[in-house]
## 1
Amino acid sequence: MTAPHRPWKPRHRLDGPEDAPVVVLGPSLGTSMDLWLPQLPALARSWRVLRYDLPGHGGAPAPDGPLTVEELAGGITDLLDGLGVERAAYAGVSLGGAVGTALALAAPHRVASLVLVCTSPRFGDPAAWRDRAALVRREGVGPVAGSAAGRWFTPAFEDAEAYVAMLRATDPEGYAACCDALAGFDATARLGGISAPTLVIAGERDVPTPPRGHADRLAAGIPDARLAVVEGAGHLANAERPDAVTREITAHLDRTWRGHDR
């Protein structure tokens, strides 16, 4: 008999002052919560920083069944409930950004401010994601890890291997399930329903989600969203150009989320 599918429970970590307003940080497909280490010192000075790992990523358990981006967002809502957090800001990279988009649509009263980094309302052809999921289930994460540096960074970035190592350590089923989740995600027609003050950050040289056709659609579709394009940055812009991305995020949060309405 097949075991019932259990709700996703994120593996998480908290940093920063216990009484500060909460900021949730979502990682990208194939990385762990440590993707956000470049921003952590600056954010943890003024905010309670809640980082999480995706299923099968960063040592978190693999999922026991299929997942959607909306279910991933539901896991964040449950996590906030368990921590007694009514409202939080949310910042996410790539898949982590999609989770933030879904969260802001499903529970607008929970999202005080939103930062979407190198992400999209729709991640291209769903068939390509399902093909990638099938490849990883068949051959493991090795094939996608071998080409990750070229997808994630510009050729000038010298520290790619530290991030590729996160992908090599990812559980194949966790990675594949997240690919399937991306295949089924399309928030394009619903972006007008996001009410949180939103900053969209794009990497100028991002290959998977370039500014044109991805970040610009988010910025155009979300009411009053602002778009910031980071020069010389690839897909993991917060890792490749950490200072520029940190400045954009902290300025946005300083303006929109100091916890006054907690």
## 2
Amino acid sequence: MLSRAAWARILPFLTYMLFIGIADVLGRLGFSAAELRWLYAVKVGAVVLVLAYFWREYSELASWRLPARAALTAVVVGVIVLVLWVNLGAGWMTIGTPAGFDPTTAGLIDWPLVAVRIAGAALVVPVMEELFWRSFLMRWIDASDFQSVEPSQVSARSVIITSVLFGFEHNLWLAGIVAGLAYIALFMRHRTIWSPILAHAVTNGLLGVWVVYTGSWSYW
């Protein structure tokens, strides 16, 4: 049986994945991309509500315990992951062809949509994913009482399993594995979930800026 602490870290992630499934079903039912433009905002909003409901369960987020040097390291790692992310896109490094998200209407960018997309990716997704992948799953593989497992003491098995799963959660599976390993390294090194959250936020936020600047909507 999973504890309340476990469910607190699982349910925000499941909520996010549920909306991905909903979008797919609605698309198959004939809803156009234009009609589903704001579904991402609803998805992010739902995740925020679940996170807020369980907020007191996240003891690892209770205080900011990231010294300036560690924060700078996390930022640098986030930038490096971004550079790798947009360069690890060869055919054998990807799964399928993502539809992406095009926020333009008649050739003009819908800036409110862009703002919501970048804010969700940089502020909400990193918290939700790091709580699930690194704080919960990586440690739970080693012990059902995952909160008792020190980040620096996780096994090689849990590192490999969660990195591979995190990678194949994304269309760019190899980039995803590399990102997962980088975020794990930060968690193990700094022993606080705020480090991979910060790196993840930098990666996602700058990726959003790059996508808008280059028009590479498939990366969304």
## 3
Amino acid sequence: MSFNIGLSGLRAATSDLNITGNNIANAGTVGFKQSRAEFADLYAASVQGTGSNQQGAGVQLSNVSQLFNQGNINYTQNALDLAINGNGFFQTSNNGEISYTRAGYFGTDREGFMVNNFGHRLQGYATDANGNLQNGVITDLRIESASQSPQATSTLTQGFNLNSTNTVPVTTPFNPADPTTYNSATSTNIYDTQGNAHVMTQYFVKTGPNAWQMNVLIDGRNPADPTSTVPYSMGMGFTASGQLNIASLASGNYDGAGGPDFTVDPATGRFTLDGWTPAIADSSVPPVWSANGATANAAGIQVDIRNSTQFASAFAVNSVSQDGYTTGQLAGLEIDDTGVIFARYTNGQSRVQGQVILANFANTQGLTPVGKTGWAQSFQSGEPVIGTPRSGTLGALQAGALEDSNVEVSEQLVNMIVAQRNYQANAKTIETESAITQTIINLR
């Protein structure tokens, strides 16, 4: 019996050494979680059960448990490196085989899919054609590296102040080349369907008390007729308190196609610039203007100036925004702490490309290690609880960083010394039992 007891001790010490050695070997492995050996004593049992004075029969390895405590966050400055600060695992797919990992080495493959260093695809929520996240539909995350298509301007929102102390210009008629024929002006870039930028200039001419006329040229030309410099025009009025009088908005001229310059919505005060023909100038002197082959937004450009005022202060544009842009190349990626992936383009636009998901389990100890710093679901772990970072009990994401192994090397070296001493002690037990047996054999 003593031989078996000593032998069980040797086996236990060997297992302890193996587990400790594996921990030390992976001290530099990103996302690695250390393990520990858990032992239990053995007692021989009979049909009648064990007695109160039963001698022990040795030791057994009852379990190898994994310790999922947080590792240190190490910053790498690589935008697609990801670390989880808190609970959860990345979910990856290898041709449909799902595994879970804390190692956040991610990049893109030749097809644009986000993959780890073994080529397993990162899972998350994708976006539709309009950039809206499809929550609840888990798929392989993909980064669209193609150029962003241009968008023609469809809305323009402005807020400006016209100086109420201005007087009616004495020089007439209006001439954009003569500043004495208007009181103030401002310019804004707008875009056609091919992403070409055009300068829309608004000239404001005071026509009487609380009354103004706004003249509009695009690239210095009539919006509907590039051969003409006659502007679109609109009358505007203000109340005694300096607020825009929506009922006063009225188109004053007619474009080259015979339609009104602006279509006014009296209910909202917004108006639409109709009939714009995007133009381009040739290299002759003076230049000859003609259509550039692109078109304006099919529904025209809806302009909103309802926040404009007329106060006794200098002309100023308080706010301006428009929704058009030219084509853009992918300039960079950003991932926030909730896992949302933002793509930035050279045209100043940004677009959501997807959102990383995390998985958690009721019993993380029950996960099955499958190598490559990954785990697989098991019966003991239970079903994964899927969510986005920072939702529920799931941790936050840190982009540009990796989670170090949670192995404390000094602690493991102490464990190795203890395991070595245990091995030596059990070997001494066997040696002593051998000596006793030899003594018996030598009796004459």
## 4
Amino acid sequence: MIFNSSKYISSFPESLLPNDASPEWNNKADNAWQLIAATLVGLQSVPGLVILYGSMVKKKWAVNSAFMGLYAFSAVLVCWVLWAHQMAFGNKLFPFVGKPNFALNEKFLLSKASTQYYLPMADFVFYQFAFAAITLVLLAGSLLGRMNFYAWMLFVPMWLTLSYTVGAFSIWGNGFLEGKIIDYAGGFVIHLSSGVAGFTAAYWVGPRSSNDRKNFPPNNIIHMLGGAGFLWMGWTGFNGGAPFQVGEITSLAIFNTHLCTATSILVWLSLDMFVYKKGSLIGSVQGMITGLVCITPGAGLVVPWAAILMGALSGSIPWYTMMVLHKRSSFFQSVDDTLGVFHTHAVAGILGGILSGIFAKPSLLKMLYGPETSYGPGLFYSYFYGNVGQGIRQILYQLLGAFFITLWNVVITSLVCIIVSLIMDLRMQEEDLEVGDDAAHGEEAYVLWGDGEKRILPLRIHINSPTIISISHQRHSIPINKIDE
């Protein structure tokens, strides 16, 4: 059925017709998709990683782990609009960071995002906030099960300000690496930085209690899988929103993202079955994450066969560093990275960044960045185009980007941890580490009598009648039928 709206519009009052609320430069399709993409990225953190973290940890740390993610997500948004967005994407202060300023002005938020993007600046600010927030939430995965929550509350705004904004401005903003490093959607800016910073912060905070480090089973694997599902499907917005327009690159990026991820899962699963003779759901989730991370820096810039190859490598190289090298290396053993964020994000992020420098296709680079782009070509294509020197140069730039992000995060994360430690303890008290959530927040994820890990209090037995015994523990009271003598 064809609906002709023109004859109806003429009868509407003039005040109801389209006006300045949708200026000529605003592409409604781009605008709508960008808001959806930003929401999908936000859902990766809340509820995605919140559920994933709260389920992957030991039962007594479920609330604390989820709470760290929720706090980081909300705190980053406030800091982002007050000063951090402009430090990452505003006017240059230094070659590596912009001037801090508000991103709250109505005129600013409703203006055209840039000469390249046909949508309001508010879309750009919100989408980039979601990127910044998930970086902090990912970082938290290295610190679960022992960090003082109040120290975490200070750590989040400090690290966002001193570390994340620098990486974002240097590579994506108007910094000294902009136009040189291929990082389509954050392999370096988000994943390498969160993996390196998480590992560094884990060193300063110290390890979990000896009991937790030896025995740390997930409390709900099915819920863990639900959180992982939010993360995987949310990556449609993570990589699909990076071009800030609805076009061929967006479609290709989404397709490559899921293709690489599925390949990575199958390779990780195959290695688990070959070496350990059993398939692991937790291992498959790790393989899912490494696939998502690896494809991110080149999702819209490589062709599908390259995405499959990247998935095969992301399912095998991080598997080796996590399952083999980590266990053999005294260096890795000396730092308690709770969820292995270094392997799933730093290793996979560097791998994806280098592979993007190899497989980035010149025509796709021009389609996204314009015909005069200074990126690339990828080393693989440079051979066929007769300009191998340019391909080698791009690989060297990729390595330079990895080196800069790694070094900056090691130094700044250490500095932030040292400053916070001068104000309060980075780590919970040892007696509280044995208790977990109840000591940290006075709450438990599973309030079942006798099934939580709580402070041991005296057990009181009351004889109410010849046939009933009431046993009370703290607030709980359970009647038990007396067995006939």
